[in-house]
Specification:
Blueprint lengths: L1 H13 L9 E13 L2 H6 L3 E11 L4 E14 L5 E18 L2 E20 L2 E23 L2 E13 L4 E15 L1
Antiparallel strand pairs: 1-2, 1-8, 2-3, 3-4, 4-5, 5-6, 6-7, 7-8
Length: 181
């Protein structure tokens, strides 16, 4: 199953190559806060600062595809001395609607999520790393603030398919984008 999803991720990244001579490319920086929202995950850890960079290619007035690389810095344990950090690489599809100087969008993606958990007992620290597949879904609004620059916000739900529990984060973020024409 993982091999099929990885092949789909690579295919999604390559599908925009045929549109390379048209459209708009953008580079974005996001700063947000990952809030745990489900069952055991919510009971075990606190929220974490989140940062991401994304690049996308708008190949149609209403559609874009891209890739995001993000990082949750430190989900601290609710009890005890433990923390979880999450790195993710996620291709996505974006559905856009532009109105005047605003752009509304919905976004759907899937990707690879790598989590690293560190637990300290007395003076001994143990760590483990796990890689899993996941999906994300959300939306946002961007405002044209200058030529080729946008500022706005986004809210995204990330679900990671972990064997023993559901890992779900809601990530509201501030987003800055530079557009290359």
């Amino acid at each position: 199953m993982k091999k099929v999803l990885i092949a789909l991720m690579l295919t999604a990244c390559m599908t925009t190559a045929g549109f390379a001579a048209k459209g708009t490319t953008s580079l974005s920086v996001l700063a947000g806060y990952a809030v745990p929202i489900s069952g055991d995950w919510n009971d075990m850890v606190k929220g974490s600062m989140n940062a991401a960079v994304a690049g996308d290619y708008q190949f149609h007035d209403m559609f874009a595809a891209g890739l995001e690389i993000g990082y949750n810095f430190k989900h601290e344990a609710e009890v005890g001395d433990a923390e979880v950090k999450i790195l993710y690489v996620a291709p996505y599809a974006k559905f856009l609607h532009k109105k005047d100087k605003m752009t509304f969008y919905g976004i759907f993606g899937f990707g690879w999520y790598q989590s690293k958990a560190e637990i300290t007992i007395l003076t001994v620290t143990t760590s483990t790393t796990e890689s899993d597949l996941g999906i994300n879904l959300g939306g946002g609004i961007m405002f044209d603030v200058a030529e080729n620059m946008q500022l706005g916000g986004e809210v995204r739900w990330h679900h990671v398919f972990v064997e023993d529990m559901a890992v779900n984060n809601i990530v509201p973020a501030v987003k800055f984008s530079y557009l290359f024409n």
